[in-house]
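[stage:ingest] chain + small molecule (uridine-diphosphate-N-acetylglucosamine)
[stage:ingest] validated
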Amino acid sequence: MANAHLNVVILAAGQGKRMNSAIPKVLHTIANVSLLERVVNTALTLNPQKIIVICGHERNTIQSTLAHLPVQWVVQEAQLGTGHAALQAMPHLHNDSKTLVLFGDGPLISSDSLQAVIHSTTKNGMAILVSEFTDPRGLGRVVRDNNGLFLRIVEEKDASAEELHLNEIFTGILCAPTTQMAQWLQRLGNNNAQGEYYLTELPALALADGCAVTTVRLQHPQQAQGINDKKQLAQQERYFQSCQAEALLLRGLILRDPNRFDLRGTVQFGIDVVVDINVILEGKVQLGDRVQIGANTVIRNCIVGDDVIIKENCILEDSIIGNDCTVGPFARLRPETVLKEKAGIGNFVEVKKSTIGIASKVNHLTYIGDATIGKDVNIGAGTITCNYDGVNKHQTIIGDRAFIGSDTQLVAPVTVGEGATVGAGSTITKDVPANQLTFCRKQQIVVENWERPQREEEN
Ligand code: UD1
Ligand code: CA
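[stage:predict] done
[stage:export] tokens:
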């Protein structure tokens, strides 16, 4: 059930000049998910009645990219500041609720931290999320009186030399009863260094109205780091990856080096799975028991069975790999590849939209595309399924126990019968009968008493 007393407003209208990018800031990604989508996903865990996203700069691109999100888009025509942005949401909100304001460029804030802010918001008081930063440059500072009571937030560009030394910063996240928030937002001025309507002036207005302002202290400052430039984007990617790696280690995954592992999606894994360095897992990856993944391998949307060994430098995508298979090194499995149990794919082998049967081997320098290969088949080095005639794709079918000699081209559509042997160097254009030797090869010619040409004398 939705929490009828909560609205969330996410500010995402700014250009993000400091990113130096043609891509709108909130569409940059951390682990393949955009900054804004991450904030929305976290907001959804709070089960609010409504999520409003304020957009402006490049709003069409943002809205079409994130059209699947269950949010209401509200436009801020001119970007006059964070306070002005939040104000745009107010006519769309229910008055008897609380409103939580989040920034679209702060993607890693946790649901727990937001819950703490919401719970500290009273009937007519505001809660703000603050944190201690060793390097507070660029951020709004929290100013307190001699007794440590909250007074106001000052933006860096408006701060005195003394205030610049304060390490307590405002994360940008605040929550207040909606009616009061709307009134305070209307009363904001823009008489400051940047000529903008600052959201950060709201707490001082609340205090002046006799409302309490509760400061909630964030325990993990890195969660609150906003992303304004590419350096911060890279830092937050690393932070996110290190949090994920730590959680996976604690769940039992063996990562040879958690600093050289990236997960851009989700992974399920069995017992004693070993992941060597520089492995990237993307999308939805499922790994069985005792799987070993060699260095520099990318696995995207795959199901991998028990006891599979994936050697170094492989790329596996949208494939299903049965128990006890071996893949690589330097193998590429493209979408819709199915390896049945004990199949072996060796070096410099590309497989696309094909099924390789039980215990069949494709060990060297081979292309298998649009093929169905039975069990116990041996495909020699340098075999090519010629699946494409320049217009259409055609199927190659190879029966159980067939043996394909090295350097064979199978011009599809073509079928090789069970137990057939195809001699090396053949170009097969017609179906091959079962249990026979078939080959197609020019005869070997020997020219006797032939002599190599001699180098001509220079004169
Ligand atoms: C802001 C805060 C600062 C805080 C910091 C935390 C203000 C004035 N300053 O600074 O106190 O410490 O975040 O990261 O709020 N936006 C709009 N419309 C606008 C302007 C901005 O929607 O007119 C959006 C941006 O797209 C962005 C968010 O608001 O997602 C924050 O704006 P940004 O310019 O990044 O603020 P900071 O300078 O980081
Ligand atoms: Ca920011």
